């Protein structure tokens, strides 16, 4: 009997406990879809590392969740969800929705600093990502762009899955799990490769850890058309020699011919 109660409890716990999400600095993070409490008052708090809490939003008189305090200017609550705007690095951490003081949803927000990386069209570029893999239950490494996979490498057998467009153009360092270097090596960079790239390690069930992000810019290769004609012109004028030499020769020839 007790195991039934236990498994129901486990299912119940897992039905709301976590939600991992990432947002880049200054972007808007959707913390949650609308949270509804049945009659009880809803609140949203921030859980800090020192176990203190900061109120983020609370239900007003009509039961609608409203941002409070310093979040008044940065929190948008509308029919599509709860949004935290202009994300800063201190927004990293856990957020908890409560119904009458009982937690119903915990969200972990991970704030990413996007580094700018540039490449020339056709060249190889490396997007950095690092994570401690030694003694960690890292199952695979995944890179994504525009919400689609770029590469996924399984640790157990080094099996590689590629996102379309990236087949045979992307790789990780062969000893990535020894070095903890999960940087993405992208070969033959194309203009369409431009965009934000996200790196994650997948540990255990669904946990995405140690994310890193890079904003790739690909520069077009120019064929320098302006130098070629000017070079030609220079060598022509050199070959032609000084104008006065021609004038003297022409005059001499003219005089000689006239004399004859
Ligand atoms: C809700 O707010 C977010 C963030 O400001 C915005 O992007 C979204 O369009 C809004 N949705 C509605 C339905 O107003």
TrEMBL record:
<dbReference type="InterPro" id="IPR003598">
    <property type="entry name" value="Ig_sub2"/>
</dbReference>
<dbReference type="Pfam" id="PF07686">
    <property type="entry name" value="V-set"/>
</dbReference>
<feature type="signal peptide">
    <location>
        <begin position="1"/>
        <end position="19"/>
    </location>
</feature>
<keyword id="KW-1015">Disulfide bond</keyword>
<dbReference type="InterPro" id="IPR051427">
    <property type="entry name" value="Nectin/Nectin-like"/>
</dbReference>
<dbReference type="InterPro" id="IPR036179">
    <property type="entry name" value="Ig-like_dom_sf"/>
</dbReference>
<keyword id="KW-0325">Glycoprotein</keyword>
<dbReference type="InterPro" id="IPR013783">
    <property type="entry name" value="Ig-like_fold"/>
</dbReference>
<dbReference type="InterPro" id="IPR007110">
    <property type="entry name" value="Ig-like_dom"/>
</dbReference>
<feature type="domain" description="Ig-like">
    <location>
        <begin position="103"/>
        <end position="201"/>
    </location>
</feature>
<keyword id="KW-0472">Membrane</keyword>
<protein>
    <recommendedName>
        <fullName>Ig-like domain-containing protein</fullName>
    </recommendedName>
</protein>
<dbReference type="InterPro" id="IPR003599">
    <property type="entry name" value="Ig_sub"/>
</dbReference>
<keyword id="KW-0732">Signal</keyword>
<dbReference type="InterPro" id="IPR013106">
    <property type="entry name" value="Ig_V-set"/>
</dbReference>
<keyword id="KW-0677">Repeat</keyword>
């Amino acid at each position: 009997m007790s195991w039934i109660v236990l498994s129901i409890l486990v299912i119940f716990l897992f039905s709301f406990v976590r939600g991992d999400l990432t947002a880049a600095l200054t972007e808007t993070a959707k913390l949650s879809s609308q949270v509804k409490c049945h009659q009880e008052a809803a609140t949203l708090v921030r859980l800090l590392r020192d176990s203190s809490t900061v109120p983020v939003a609370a239900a007003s008189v009509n039961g609608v969740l409203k941002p409070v305090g310093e979040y008044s200017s940065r929190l948008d609550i509308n029919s599509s969800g709860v949004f935290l705007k202009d994300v800063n690095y201190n927004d990293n951490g856990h957020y908890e929705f409560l119904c009458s003081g009982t937690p119903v949803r915990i969200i972990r927000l991970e704030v990413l600093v996007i580094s700018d990386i540039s490449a020339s069209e056709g060249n190889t570029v490396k997007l950095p990502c690092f994570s401690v893999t030694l003694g960690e239950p890292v199952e695979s490494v995944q890179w994504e762009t525009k919400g689609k996979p770029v590469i996924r490498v399984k640790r157990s057998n080094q099996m590689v899955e590629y996102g379309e467009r990236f087949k045979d153009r992307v790789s990780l360092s062969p000893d990535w799990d020894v070095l903890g270097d999960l940087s993405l090596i992208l070969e033959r960079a194309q203009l369409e490769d431009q965009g934000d790239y996200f790196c994650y390690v997948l540990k255990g069930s669904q946990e995405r850890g140690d994310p890193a992000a890079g904003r790739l810019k690909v520069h077009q290769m120019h064929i320098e058309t302006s130098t070629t004609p000017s070079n030609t012109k220079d060598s022509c004028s050199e070959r032609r020699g000084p104008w006065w030499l021609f004038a003297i020769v022409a005059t001499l020839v003219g005089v000689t011919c006239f004399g004859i």
